[in-house]
């Protein structure tokens, strides 16, 4: 038996490398609010003009939504943020370990000090020092982030990078090229090597999963609202899971979580 990676919902204190919030870049922020409000029951609080919209459920902030500039030429996408005790030091470790720091480090108000980087395979992630409205440790429930998974060509190849940057400890592979990373003694993120099965146009990417009460019903709702089904609902190592995309193309997972589950077999 093994634990599912710990919820990516905000909590305090954060062990380094623990997913602590997620950010959506989208071309239509108003449409994204309508979609995610219907799917997850999120409520939204707009900041000053030009600042991101904050999403919450049950009084717990879980995500921010950024409006992409019309001429940005970027695709809609979710980006996870991992906890750091020292963002500047983490940024230096990213560079020394073969990654790239694209934004920051910089101060971002109540979100703390933040930076955005890419690992050697090109997967984009952020890291930060604080979150303004932490949820209790291990908080679970519909609409909250459940866990975060990296999909890449080879999980083995990038494990060393993330271990150097965040001090993770890697569990023995639970299936061929499927690796869980621990921080503070707890599983916090999963790495999934997909080889030639990784979509070439998409490349390596982090995929947040959000908890739902009924995976199959949520998939039907996503489709009714104009989203797409990318991986049908199936029973996986952490519950019943499906991968979908919102109407703008941002990919994410939905999952009916279980507490402890059998380790997947290779």
TrEMBL record:
It holds the Pfam family Glyoxalase. InterPro entries: Anthracycline_SecMetBiosynth, Glyas_Bleomycin-R_OHBP_Dase, Glyas_Fos-R_dOase_dom, Glyoxalase_6, VOC_core. It comes from the Bacteria. Residues 18-130, 144-257 form the VOC domain. SUPFAM superfamilies: Glyoxalase/Bleomycin resistance protein/Dihydroxybiphenyl dioxygenase. This is VOC family protein.
């Amino acid at each position: 038996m093994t634990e599912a990676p710990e919820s990516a919902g905000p909590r305090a204190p954060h062990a380094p490398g623990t997913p602590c919030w997620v950010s959506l870049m989208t071309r239509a922020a108003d449409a994204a609010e309508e979609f995610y409000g219907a799917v997850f029951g999120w409520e939204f609080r707009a900041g000053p003009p030009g600042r991101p919209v904050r999403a919450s459920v049950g009084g717990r902030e879980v995500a921010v939504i950024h409006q992409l500039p019309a001429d940005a030429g970027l695709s809609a996408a979710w980006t996870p943020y991992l906890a750091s005790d020292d963002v500047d030091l983490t940024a230096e470790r990213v560079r020394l370990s073969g990654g790239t720091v694209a934004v920051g480090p910089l101060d971002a108000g109540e979100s703390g000090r933040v930076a955005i980087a890419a690992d050697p395979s090109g997967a984009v992630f952020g890291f930060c020092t604080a979150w303004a409205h932490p949820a209790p440790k291990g908080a679970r429930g519909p609409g909250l982030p459940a866990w975060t998974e990296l999909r890449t060509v080879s999980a083995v190849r990038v494990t060393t990078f993330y271990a150097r940057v965040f001090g993770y400890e890697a569990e023995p592979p639970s299936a061929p090229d499927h690796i869980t990373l621990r921080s503070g003694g707890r599983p916090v993120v999963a790495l999934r090597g997909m080889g030639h099965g990784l979509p070439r146009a998409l490349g390596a990417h982090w995929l947040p999963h959000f908890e739902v009460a009924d995976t199959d019903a949520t998939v039907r709702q996503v489709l009714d609202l104009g989203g797409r089904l990318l991986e049908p609902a199936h029973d996986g190592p952490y519950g019943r899971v499906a991968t979908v995309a919102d109407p703008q193309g941002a990919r994410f997972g939905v999952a009916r979580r279980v507490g402890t589950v059998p380790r997947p077999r290779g």
